[in-house]
């Protein structure tokens, strides 16, 4: 079975069978572990490389997730958006195990920003089983993005630095998104998490 299809199944099962971890930002293991495992198997990587890829996935996932955590008011009104940032836990281990360089990983993160889902509270409000599939879809998309970048996709870099892109859309002033007046609300986004203590540990 091709890795993207296997990722869809494993990501869905990881959440449906409650095998995932739980952190204040969500369940990164539903994406990080299946994607790392499958990519390591696909590219014949070592156990050491597998573990390093999972650690990298957690680091990047947590930074992005913490940067865009919604205020309580926004969470109650519009939803938490956990499945929104799960895609980064899928992309990073695959990109690392595929041997993508920093420029291409930056590109993959940009594509993840473009492919992330709209934050919504609908699955939680309806208690739909579909929420389990969302993890599988993020895992599948992580593979498709990494494979596309590996083959050559350009001009999606530095998406996290542009407030008109991911952080602005997830946490910004919706009335202004997409024009020159896009704002990041201080109580909605803390972009400092993206680089906080980076390289100091």
Automatic annotation (TrEMBL):
Query: Which Pfam families does this UniProt record tie to the protein?
Result: MmgE_PrpD_N (PF03972)
- Show the GO MF annotations: lyase activity
Q: Which residues form the signal peptide?
A: none
Q: Which SUPFAM superfamilies match?
A: 2-methylcitrate dehydratase PrpD
MmgE/PrpD N-terminal domain location, by residue?
2-174
Q: What is this protein called?
A: MmgE/PrpD family
Q: What species is this protein from?
A: Anaerotruncus colihominis
Instruction: Please spell out the taxonomic lineage of the organism that makes this protein.
Output: Bacteria, Bacillati, Bacillota, Clostridia, Eubacteriales
């Amino acid at each position: 079975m091709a890795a993207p299809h296997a990722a869809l199944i494993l990501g869905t099962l990881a959440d449906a069978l409650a095998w995932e971890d739980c952190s204040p930002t969500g369940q990164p293991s539903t994406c990080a572990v299946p994607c790392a495992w499958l990519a390591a198997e696909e590219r014949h990587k070592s156990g050491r490389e597998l573990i390093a890829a999972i650690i990298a996935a957690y680091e990047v996932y947590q930074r992005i997730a913490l940067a865009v955590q919604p205020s309580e008011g926004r969470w109650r009104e519009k939803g938490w958006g956990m499945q929104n940032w799960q895609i980064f836990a899928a992309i990073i281990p695959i990109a690392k195990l595929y041997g993508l360089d920093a420029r291409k990983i930056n590109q993959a993160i940009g594509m993840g920003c473009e492919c992330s889902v709209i934050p919504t509270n609908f699955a939680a409000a309806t208690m739909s089983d579909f929420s389990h599939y969302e993890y599988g879809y993020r895992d599948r998309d992580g593979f498709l993005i990494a494979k596309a970048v590996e083959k050559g996709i350009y001009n999606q870099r530095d998406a996290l630095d542009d407030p008109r892109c991911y952080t602005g859309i997830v946490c910004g002033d919706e009335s202004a998104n997409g024009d020159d007046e896009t704002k990041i609300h201080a109580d909605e986004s803390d972009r400092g998490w993206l680089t906080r203590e980076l390289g100091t540990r």
